[in-house]
Amino acid sequence: MSSFLLAWNPNRWPWKDLENERSKLTRGSEVDILWSCRSSKVETGDRVFIIRLGKEPKGIFASGFVTEKTQGQHWDKTKNELIQYVRVKFDKLLNPDIKGVKMLFREELEDNKFQPMRWSTQFSGAQIRDDVADHLEDAWKQY
């Protein structure tokens, strides 16, 4: 199993039902979503972490596992192209817009144990080195 970083920029795509999905997961329901992913290396069963970029608070706020790879119309309706998606089944989903929410903030990812990963990626699907992924899993347990 490999680990990958998926990116979310709320300035480009507002996640309107994030709080509803977070609440469903908290109550024990399954929550999954299709997410664009540029990497062709991602496989079913791989671990993914989602980082919020673009506006504060920035950092990792969600994790899950890939249950499917597929193609579909670009999420940006102005682009007439097919792109790759992965279906992510969440195991943890936090809402960064809730005041005081604890998440793995972008600044914390500058620690040496999370290097040399480029956390400010502009695309979804950057592979996380195994040693960095191990540290990430350990840090993520507290959330």
The CATH architecture can be given as Roll
Helix content: 10-25%
Q: What's the number of structural domains?
A: 1
Average pLDDT score: 94
Beta-strand residue fraction: 25-35%
Number-wise, the strands total: 7
Task: Give the overall form.
Answer: globular
* Cα-to-Cα separation, first versus last residue: 22 Å
CATH class wording: Alpha Beta
Output the number of helix runs. Answer: 2
Structural class: alpha+beta
Instruction: Give the ordered list of helices and strands.
Output: EHEEEEEEH
Radius of gyration: 14 Å
Give an overview in words:
This protein is α+β, with helices and mostly antiparallel strands and 143 residues long. The protein has a single domain (3-138), classed as ph1033 like fold. 14% of the residues lie in helices and 34% in strands. The protein is built from 2 helices and 7 strands; from the N terminus they run βαββββββα. Strands 1, 2, 3, 4, 5, 6 and 7 form a 7-stranded mixed sheet that branches. The mean pLDDT is 94.
